[in-house]
Amino acid sequence: MRIKLMVVAVLMLALAGLTGCQQEQKASPKLAVVDANEVYQNCDFCVEAGEYLKGLSMEFQQKVATLQAQTTGKEKPDAAAMKAMRDEAMKLQQKMTGEQQRLVTILDKELKSALDAYRAEKGLSVIMNRQQAVSFDESSDVTKDIIAAMNARKIDLGIPAPEKKESAAPEKAAEESK
C-alpha cells in the first residue's frame, strides 16, 4: 500500500511539474535603437535640405550686408532707409525660419514613417533614440538600415530647382563654328 501511495504521489508531482512547464510565456519585447542625428546628417534628402538652407542663409546674409552698406555709408543715415533695411532683414529672417520649419516638418514625418515601417517589417516592439538608451548591444542599432530606408523613399522637399546661369561659352562656340 505504501508503494502505491508513493507511486501516486510521484505521478501527481510529475503531472504538476508538466503542467507548470506548459504555461505560455510572453515573448520579450524586441527593441532597437537609432541615432536620429546620424540619420539627419547622412540621409540624402536631409543633406539636400541642409545644402538648400545653407544657400538660402548665404543669400540672406548677402542681402542684409547690401542693405547695411546702403544705409551705413552715409554720414547721417536716413531714418526711412534704416527702417526699410530692418523691415527687409525681418522679412528675410522670417522666410529663412519658415523654410527651416517646413523642411524639418517634412523630414520628421518621413523619418517617423520610415521607423514605423521598419519596426513593423522586423517585428520590433520599440525603436528608441540611441542617446536615450543606457545600455544596449550594438547589434540592436538600426541606424544604417534607417538611413538606407530614408534614401529609398521618394521625398518631395518642395525645394525650387537652382537657377541655371547661362554661360557665354556655348554662344562663343556657336559663333566660332560659323
Helix content: 55-70%
Helix tally? Answer: 6
Reading side by side through the largest sheet, how are the strands ordered? 1-2
Distance between the termini: 123 Å
Largest β-sheet summary: 2 strands, parallel
| Model regions low in confidence, pLDDT < 50 over at least 5 residues | none
Order of H and E elements: HEHHHEHH
Which word captures the global form? rod-shaped
> How many DSSP E strands?
2
Radius of gyration: 32 Å
Structural class: mainly alpha
Strand content: under 5%
Average pLDDT, all residues:
81
Structural commentary:
It contains 6 helices and 2 strands, in the order αβαααβαα. The model has no long low-confidence stretch (mean pLDDT about 80). A two-stranded parallel ribbon has the order 1-2. With about 180 residues, it is mainly α. It starts with a helix and ends with a helix.
Question: Topology of this protein?
Answer:
Layout: H1 2-21, E1 31-34, H2 36-42, H3 44-72, H4 79-122, E2 126-129, H5 143-152, H6 169-176
Parallel strand pairs: 1-2
Helix pairs in contact: 2-5, 3-4
Summarize the structure.
The chain is mostly helical. It has helices at 2-21, 36-42, 44-72, 79-122, 143-152, 169-176; strands spanning 31-34, 126-129. Helix 2 (36-42) crosses helix 5 (143-152) and helix 3 runs antiparallel to helix 4 (79-122).
